[in-house]
Amino acid sequence: MPLDEDVVAVIYRDHGTALRRFVLGVCHDPQLTDDVVQETVLRVWQQAPQITGSLRSYLFRTARNVLIDNYRKAQRRPREATERDIADPVGAAERVDELLNRVLMEEALLRLSAEHRDVLVALHYRRFTVQEASDHLHIPTGTVKSRAHYAIRALRTVLDEMGVEQ
Predict the structure, then answer these.
(1) What share of the chain is helix, strand, coil (3-state, %, to 5)?
(2) What angle, rounded to 10 degrees, do the helices at 55-76 and 5-27 form?
(3) Which residue of 11, 60, 108, 160 has the fewest C-beta atoms within 10 A of its own C-beta?
């Protein structure tokens, strides 16, 4: 069955809100979300597929493919410089350093045991107190303190192995 304009209106009415919520949850940009939803419905309308299963599932899969296509296009194309980047090259260098430090820390945390990583994330990233971390992780406060001590030592070792100096 070819999709006509009435069918497109029905797709938007029945599935538009859920599709938009799904895309917005992935890209967090309302303008890009609208573009992806429109592209998704346009692809479905142009291709007029013989859908044997759920239309909603097909729409979500198509939206996912549109998001992946957009991501790949953005990776091939160099990022455009803004006036802020040009006016503040020192600030840009600091942002790059901050991003690099974040990536290195994530890599180092992944090399720790799950118990050590959970305690460090609770105490240092989520800013929990020892008692809050204890409640959240369902372990005694003394164990939180002990794991934090050994986790910091293990993290220093991992960072040394990675060649990170600081």
Answers:
(1) 80, 0, 20
(2) 60
(3) 160
